[in-house]
Please model this.
Amino acid sequence: AAYSAAAASPSRLLLRQLFEKESSTYTYLLADLAHPDKPAVLVDPVDKTVDRDTNLVKELGLKLIYAMNTHVHADHVTGTGLIKKKMPGVKSVISKASTAQADHLVDHADKIYFGGLFLEVRATPGHTVGCVTYVTGDGPDQPHPRIAFTGDTLLIHGCGRTDFQFTENYSRPSQIFTLPKDTLIYPAHDYKGFTVSTVGEELLYNPRLTKDEETFKSIMEDLKLTYPKMIDIAVPANMACGLQDATTKS
Amino acid sequence: AAYSAAAASPSRLLLRQLFEKESSTYTYLLADLAHPDKPAVLVDPVDKTVDRDTNLVKELGLKLIYAMNTHVHADHVTGTGLIKKKMPGVKSVISKASTAQADHLVDHADKIYFGGLFLEVRATPGHTVGCVTYVTGDGPDQPHPRIAFTGDTLLIHGCGRTDFQFTENYSRPSQIFTLPKDTLIYPAHDYKGFTVSTVGEELLYNPRLTKDEETFKSIMEDLKLTYPKMIDIAVPANMACGLQDATTKS
Ligand SMILES: [Fe+2]
Ligand SMILES: [Fe+2]
Model:
């Protein structure tokens, strides 16, 4: 199996992984450096680290165009609303299936362009019914290996809980597992200090998602997780870009 | 300025960044995937995460040959001694200038090979007198952009304290700042969730190391830092690969 280090096309794609300690959330900054504007997107920004992230965008001379979520998070408040206030012109993005509000509601198979690079939307329900995975494009001008931002659908050697938020307890995320084995996996969280994995590694070592549906269900039901601390604050806020006050929505 | 995403030569260099939350330490796993043995090195492993790191080495089918430190850490106990116990044949590495014990004591300009790839040793005293930066090699078969593992000499938009451990309060690390601007900087710590920077960014935005020596000294003296919590445990242990019991040293 070919295990890859990190994003290629280093002269074109900028990729920065950022960590928020309290919720152990990873935020990702991507930009097309080959485009004169250096258009950029943020995936899964957190409200508490909006200043850090927008400062980094400025330092790197990027033009942020989208602030995107993989799903309606239950453990932290999204930074998309605050980012839109600080950087007018930025559009929020989430899946239509999430039933949340955003400037762009995306469907499976949609493409989200930033410069000449793009992210493909892949529906990967399970953790929530509206979970999507954003995958870099296929093609000679796109990063190689491909990169999948899996949210909580696929965590490194794990997956997000499936016991709340209208889920139907899906198991194997075939929309991720059919990607090339060297595809880099960047999740929304890690609690053990891992930063990246690959499809090949998760096909071998993921202790949950490699199981058949029956086994998966019984593993997930046996977890007996406590009620998520932040859910009653985070979910209503995240249904509206992290800003519960509807008048702030542009 | 060209800001790069991540390590190139993705088919050859494996690079994994790993985080230890308690001390906010980054450990790095590097391997040459083009060599049949997949020889690997760990930079700045932490005692508490040795199991995680050695499991990852096994999962990826790598052959760990060196467990290296950038310096004698004062905030955590190195994992090198434990790794040697778990994986006989692994050699510990530290700079001769550190006066610590290890299997290989390295000097400025030494090269540390793992397969066909290597790390150059660059003396970067300041945080401690024996601090070194490990830099990937220059050449067509080596990763591009280059990658510098700076320990605590250069932290992202910061630097390690210079008020203990025989330091003479050096400022600008010219051995790092003369590297190409797109050189990736991977530090031993980050406290704000940044994972990587570049020489170009630090030349522009590092608020300490960009200053002249006088200003640098007064900034560092004004920090009025408290006595490091772990220093009396960590330093004596780290002088001997994290194992104070000398009989355990191979
Ligand atoms: Fe979630
Ligand atoms: Fe240190």
In short: Chain A touches chain B through 39 residues (CB under 8 Å). The pocket of fe (ii) ion (ligand 1) is lined by residues A 71, 73-75, 127, 152, 160 (CB under 6 Å).
